[in-house]
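Hello Y.,

Per our agreement to keep a running log of every chain we model this quarter, I'm adding this entry. I've kept the format consistent with earlier entries: sequence first, then predicted structure.
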Amino acid sequence: MVLRTTTTTRLIFRPMLVDNRHDPAAAVKGTFMYQRKGPNEQWTDFDTIPFSSLKKGEGYRLEVKSGELLPLVQQLNGLYRLHAEQGVPQGEVQFVQIADSLQGLSSMSHADLATFLDAHSAVGEDVLRRLLAWASAAKDFGRLVELLERLEQGELRALRVGSGINSLANALQYWRDRFGEKDEEFWQKALADHSFVLEQVYSWPVTVVKDKAYVGGKSVMNTGGGVVDFLVKNGLTQNAALIEIKTPSTSVLGQSYRAGVWTPSTELAGAIVQVLSYRDRLLKEYHHLSGDQGQLFEAFEPSCAVIIGSAKNLGDEERRSFELFRSQIRDVRIVTFDELFEKTERAIGVMQASVETVEAERSDDSPF
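Predicted structure for the entry above:
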């Protein structure tokens, strides 16, 4: 413990934890040392004159200033607490001293800690950011998992659900702000970056195998071939599905054919035929395409989907024609972007209700 230091002198106290059988609470002994060195030399121990060599009328006096004595007492108190909790550690063990303020936070009740962080949101955000950075770089993930497992099931569920809500909400707002974007590549990238939203297309857990996936069809001249926007699979059965996307501004209906009857747009009809063609190629060349990928996915009559356009601006007769048409397309699921967004928003609502339930349960069970 360095109490006083300059470039050439310093006063230190070197403590030692001991097992004192006569008085177990008296668990610390130590030695004061006053050292002197050259400006470019290292601090070293030295031989000292023992007290037994003092002659009559001689003595030593070592003054410890108030600014040096207080941190000495504080650090010694820490050693006494360490000994009370762990005794004398065996082998080589590294301990890190924490500030009293952090020690105080760790001993707060849940209610007091929540009140403190609510009142000092900037501090809470900074601490959380640093903790997450530490967790992401942790070398001992087993220890990290063990700490997470100590959380109550409700707390862990709320943390997981809260993260999901934030991801979905950010994606939803991002897309709504850019709903008029007409570049298909933009929407390809947007869905690839937030691919978890593709689960709203199906009722089963979706795993993206590859976006812009080659599904076969090249000739011996190395020309042609199909690239589907998303090759996904059922996370449980591994069965593949193919998703083709357009843009929210793509029309889903074409011209009026008769009074009250509208034809599908060329883009919609083309996308349907295109994704069915991709499925046909995938089935014919499945073993060749997946041969070096192990059990990456299966192809048991893969499902197909087209994400295209918007339904909210359709008139009553147009909506009727659209629904009659897509309800008869058995092999291709047709989903509009606004339907995808609406399902995402409802998923957020369900998740928020789950978090509120957890918070209510925690409030009822809390002793604070």
